[in-house]
Design goal:
The chain is an alpha+beta fold. The chain has one domain (about 1-60). It contains two helices and three strands. It has helices at about 1-25, 55-60, and strands at about 30-35, 40-45, 50. A three-stranded antiparallel sheet has the order 1-2-3. A hairpin with a 5-residue loop joins strand 1 (about 30-35) and strand 2. The longest helix is centred in the N-terminal third of the chain and has 26 residues, at about 1-25. It is flat, with a radius of gyration of 14 Å.
């Protein structure tokens, strides 16, 4: 049961970290980069616009 609590705590921490990254991106007029559940790497802008990162772009992400 302890492992379950640790997993929940880790999931909460990851969610909070992502939320903070979005706030920082908005404050700095930039974007965040992450991997979707489907395995695609994307850039997400503070206005909600999401752009897939191509293989050519990934070396600069």
């Amino acid at each position: 049961m302890r492992l379950t609590n640790q997993t929940k705590d880790l999931q909460k921490f990851i969610k909070l970290t992502g939320g903070r990254a979005k706030l920082d991106a908005k404050a700095n007029d930039t974007y965040i980069v992450y991997k979707t559940a489907e395995g695609q790497i994307v850039k997400e802008y503070s206005d909600g616009h999401i752009i897939p990162v191509s293989d050519q772009d990934s070396s600069h992400a």
